Amino acid sequence: MIASLRQALHTFYQSRAGYTLSWLAVYAVVLLLASSIFFYTIPLPDNSIALRNIQYAISDAETPEALSTEAWREGRLPHQWKQVAPNAMNVWYRGVVELPAEQHSLWGILIPALKMNAAVYLNGELLGDGGRFTNPVARNWMTPLMFSIPAGLLQEAGNVFHIRVKSDPPGTGQLAALQLAPYDDLAYAYHVHYLFRITSIQIITAMLLVMGAFIALLWLVRRKETYYAYFALAVIIWGLHNFNLFITTIPVSTRLWDWMAFISIGYYTFAAFVFTHRFLEIEHPRMEKTVLAAGMLASLLLLLPNDKLFYFAVFNLWYPAIFTLGLYIFTYTCKEAWKRQSMELQLLSAVGAITLLYALHDLLLMHGYVDWQDGYYIQYAAAVLLTLFSFILLRRFIKSLNEVDNLNRTLEKRIDANRRQLQNNFQQLRQMENEQILAHERERLAREIHDGMGGHLVSTLAMIHSGNASLPSVADAIQDSLNDLRLMIDSMDISENDLETLLGMFRSRITPRLDKCALSLSWHIEDLPPLKHFGPREALHILRILQETVSNSIKHAQADRLSLVARALPQANGDNAISIELSDNGRGMADDRQDGKGLKNMRYRAQKIGARLSIDSDATGTRVRLLLAT
To answer: Of 46, 315, 450, 607, which residue is least crowded by CB atoms under 10 Å?
Structure first.
C-alpha cells in the first residue's frame, strides 16, 4: 500500500498541476519561515528602563570633563548622523535617568545596536567601551555591548550618562536606545541578542568554510563536474565575507577593509552566477567572461576614488548591480525548474528567493528605507543554502548508491550468465581437446605398431611364405614383435616425470636378451630432476632410441659389455639437463660410414622430443648420448 501511495504521489508530482501545486507550497512555506526573521525583537526584561531622550554634541573630546564648553542639541534615541552630522566622526550623547528609590541588586546597561564604537560613562565614571577609538576604530556595528554598573554608583535621581560614539567613515554613526535593568535580567536579553547577531553568524561562517573545503575536495575527485568547484568558491567567499560582521579589531584601514567586504559579496555572486550555468549544464561562455571581466574591473576601479565617492559608488552602483545579477540567477533557475520539473531546481530557486528577499532588505537598509537597528540579514540565507545543498548532495549520494546497487545486480546477472556460457564453452573445448588427443594418440600408436611390431610380423610372414624360415628364426622374429609390444605398453604405463622408473623398466626388458648374447650390463642412475614435458609420447621415443642402440651393439659391435649412465648435468645458462649415456666396448663404426635407417630414426625421435643426440665411435667402442632439457 505504501509503495502504491508513493507511486501515486510521484505520478501527481510529475503532472503540471502537481508540480505547480508543490511549487506554490514550497514557496509559501519557505517565504513564511524566511520572513519570520523580520519580527524578531530583543527579549528585554519587564523592569528595564530605556534611555531615549538625550542631548548630543559633535566633539572630538575624549572624556566627559572636556565637554563643558560644547554646544548641546536636543535629540532622541535611536539616532543617526546622516542628516544632523554628515561630516562628523565623533559624537557625544548625554542623558539623565531616574531610577526606583531602592536598588538592592547589581544593574547593567545594554546598547543593542550602534555604529561603530562606544564608551559609556555614568556620573563621570567609565563603565566600559567596545574597543579601540584610534584608527582603525573598533567595529561594533553588529555587536551588542553590555556593561555592569558598579554598586553605589547609581543614585536615586540625577544619574547622568555620557556616551561617546565614534564612526568611520564620517557621517555614518548610529546609536540605538540604551536599556537599563538589573544585571542578571539584562544579561539574558544580551546573550539572546548576541546569539542572534554574532554567535549564529560565527556558526554559519564555520559551516560555510567547512562545506566549501569539503566540496572543493569532492571537486578534486570529480574534476569533470566543475559546478562543485564554483559552488565551493562561492561558499568560501561568502564565509570570508562574514568575518566583516563579527570581527571588531581589523588589521588594515577601514577603507581597505570595507573595500574587501564590499567586493567579496560581489565575487560570491559572480561564482554563484557561473555555478548556476554549470549546474544547469548550460553554456554561456561569452556572457560569463563579460560579467567576470566587468566585475573584476569595477572592483579594481573602486580602489581609486576618495572615501565619499567610494561609498556613493558602492551603495548606488556596485550593490544594485550585484542585486540585479542575483535576480538574473534567480529568474533563470526558476525558468529551468519550471521547464524541467526538477525538485532540485525548485528547491534552489526557493533558496534564491530567500537570498533575494534578504538582499533587498539590506539594500533598502543601506538607503535608509528600513530600520537600521535590525542589521543585515543576507548572512542568514547561508544557513538555508547549506541545508539545501547538503540535502541535494545526500539525495544524489543515495541515488548514486542505488544506481551502483542496480548496476551490481545487473553485472552479477551478466557475470553469472557469462560464467555459465564459459563453463559450457570450456566443456566443449575440453571435449574437443580430448577427442583431438585421442585422435593423435591413435595415430601415434598406429604408426608405432606399423613401424615396430607390424614390421616384425610382416617380415616373419614373408619369411614363412618363402619356405626358407627355420623354427628358431621365426621364434626370434615373434619374440622381437612381443618385445616391441611390451615397449609400447611400458611407455604408456609411465607416470609424469618418472624417468627413473622408465629406465628401470627398460633394464628389466633388455636384461634377458643381453644374457642370451653374453653381454654384461653396467648400470648407474643418479637422482634425476623432473622434465618439463614428459609423457607416453616422450617415453616411447626414449625407449626406441635406447632399444635401437642396444640392437646395434648386439648386431654389429661384437661387444661383451654395455654401460648405461643417467645423471643431471649443469648447463651454461644455469639450468640442468639430463644425460642418458649408453656405451659398449665393441669394435666401433667405420669412419666413412653412412647413417642407416636405424640411426636416422634415432635422430628423428630425438628431434621430436627436443633432445640432442650425439654418437661417438672409435676402436674402443661406441657411445650414444641423449641430452634432455629439464
So the answer is: 46
Cα separation, 551 vs 298, in Å, equals: 109
Q: How many CA atoms lie within 13 A of 74 on its CB side?
A: 0
493-629: CATH architecture? 2-Layer Sandwich (3.30)
| Mean pLDDT, residues 121-149 taken together | 93
- What is the domain partition of the chain in residue ranges? 49-192, 196-403, 493-629
Sequence-separated contacts (24+) of 513-521 with Cβ below 8 Å: 513/483, 513/550, 513/554, 514/550, 514/554, 514/562, 517/554, 518/560, 519/553, 519/554, 519/559, 519/560, 519/561, 519/562, 520/560, 520/561, 520/562, 521/561, 521/562, 521/563, 521/564
**Could you tell me the three cell numbers for 13?**
508530482
> Which pLDDT value is given to residue 441?
61
In this prediction, residue 438 carries a pLDDT of: 59
Written as nine digits, the cell of 74 is 536636543
Residue 337: pLDDT band (50, 70, 90) is confident
Please report the pLDDT score of residue 447 as a whole number: 59
Lowest mean pLDDT among 81-95, 232-246, 530-544: 530-544
Taking 70 as the threshold, does the pLDDT of residue 186 lie above it? yes
3.20.20.10, 3.90.1150.10, 2.60.120.260, 3.30.70.3340: which CATH number matches 49-192?
Answer: 2.60.120.260
Mean pLDDT of 404-412: 84
Alpha helices in 493-531 (DSSP H): 499-516
Signed CA dihedral, 246, 250, 252, 254: sign only: positive
Region 361-372: mean pLDDT is 90
Per residue, the 3-state secondary structure of 328-392, as one string, reads: HHHHHHHHHHHHHCCHHHHHHHHHHHHHHHHHHHHHHHHCCCCCHHHCCCHHHHHHHHHHHHHHH
Between 14 and 213, the higher pLDDT residue: 213
> Are 136 and 169 in contact, with CB atoms under 8 Å apart?
no
Tell me the C-alpha distance between 120 and 139, whole Å.
16
pLDDT at position 480 is: 64
CA distances from 145 to 159, 197, 543 (A): 20, 12, 110
Q: How far is CA 524 from the centre of its chain?
A: 68
For residue 157, what pLDDT is reported?
76
For 274-299, the pLDDT digits (tens) are: 999 998 888 899 999 999 999 999 99
Q: Which residue has the higher pLDDT, 244 or 487?
A: 244
Would you say the C-alpha torsion 497, 498, 502, 507 has a positive or negative sign?
A: positive
Closest by Cα among 128, 246, 234 to 197: 246
Distance CA 366, CA 376 (A): 9
Output b/e per residue, 382-418; b: 16+ Cβ within 10 A.
bbbbbebbeebbeeeeeeeeeeeeeeeeeeeeeeeee
Strand partners, 146: 110
Is the peptide bond preceding residue 570 cis, with omega within 30 degrees of 0? no
Contacts of 622 (CB under 8 A, 6+ apart): 552, 553, 557, 583, 584, 586, 588, 589, 615, 616
Asked if 185 and 124 count as a contact pair (C-beta separation under 8 A), the reply is no
Rounded to whole angstroms, the Cα distance separating 615 from 606 reads 12
The C-alpha cell that represents 622 in the structure block: 661406441
Average of per-residue pLDDT values in the chain: 85
Whether residue 153 contacts residue 125, with contact meaning beta carbons closer than 8 Å, is answered with: yes
3-state helix, strand, coil in the chain (%, to 5): 60, 15, 25
Tell whether the model's pLDDT for residue 188 goes beyond 70. yes
